[in-house]
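Follow-up to my earlier ticket, as requested here are the two runs.
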Amino acid sequence: IDESGVDPQTVRDAMDAARDAALDQAVADGKLTQEQADQIRERGPQGHPGGPGGPQGRPGPQRGGQ
C-alpha cells in the first residue's frame, strides 16, 4: 500500500478490468476483431505505473528523431 493508502495492485487490477471491458465492447460493436483484441491484451499493461513505455506511461523515444 502506497502513501495514499491505496494498494497499487488493486489499481492495476481495476485498470485491467476496464481495458478488458472496453475491448469486449469494441469487439461486440464490430470496431475490433477478436484477434485484434487478444493481441492488445497480450501486450500487457502498457501505460501502467512501472509498465513499458516512458515516464508515467508516456511514449518513449520515437523513430526518426521525433
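Run two:
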Amino acid sequence: MSILTTLYRGEQQFDFPAVWRKALIGSVLLVMLSVGSFFVRGLNLGIEFEGGTSWEVFAPEASVADAREALSGTGAAAGKIQTVGGDSIRVRADIDDLEGVAEVTAALADLAEAELSDVSVTTVGPSWGDQITDKARNAL
C-alpha cells in the first residue's frame, strides 16, 4: 500500500510527541526567516502604492538594453524597465508632468516602430496610492 492510502485509512502510526520539539524549532525558525526577509529586502510595492507612470508597448524585437538606450534622454532611463511576456516592454518611472510622459511615450513608440496610440500609459498619483495604503493598513 502507498503512504497516502495508509494515511487516509488512519493506519499510519507516527510518534508526534517524540518530534514536537524539533517541529517547534523548525517552525519558529521559518517564521523568523519570513519576518526577517521583510526587513532585509523590503516590500516590492507596485505603482498603485508608490505612484508614478507606467508605459507598456508591444515590441517583440526590442530588449531591455534597447529600451534603456532609447530612453536615455528622458527621465525614465533610471526607472524600472522589464520585458513582459517576451514581446512587450514595460517601463515604470516617477514622472508626473505631461511633457515628460509625452517624451517617454514618443521614445517607446519609436523603439517599437508603432503609433503613439499603441503605447499604453497609466499614471497614478501619490495621493491615491497613499489612500490605498491607509485603507490596507486599516483593513489589517
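The only thing I checked on run two: Residues 16-41 form the longest helix (26 residues). Let me know what else you need.
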